[in-house]
Amino acid sequence: MVNVLALAFFKYADFFVPSALAALTHLGIRAPVDGLQVLLPIGLSFFVVQVISYLLDVNRGVAKPITDPVDFAVYMAYFPRITSGPIERARDFLPYLQNKRTINREQVSDSVVLILQGLVRKVVIADLLFIILPPRRV
Hints:
By secondary structure, the protein is mainly alpha-helical. It has three domains: about 1-40, no CATH class; about 45-100, no CATH class; about 105-138. Helix content is about 65%, strand content about 0%. The chain has five helices and no strands. The model has no long low-confidence stretch (mean pLDDT about 80).
């Protein structure tokens, strides 16, 4: 419930702020506008729906509660979900976290190479193309 309330607050606070300011002004109360601006944290909707999915699966008994905080953090922050859509069901994903994970130098080396390749493609190729190509009007 707290998750949904936090999401509702951040998503709809800006909707109610102008009305609240108008009501306060009508009553003769001047409120500082800067203090009432609320920024929506990036990805909040994703995390709220993800934790609701986890709580539902645990409550229904189709997934066991996670006892390791690192496993829970991995479950919550694991974005690359291509086959299952944006929300991964706890009953499908948590068994993978229970398997023993081993990391060796070859995996770390391959990962660093992939990250550097992506960075070069973005910084060198994509940024240069953005500067060179004229904007396309749709």
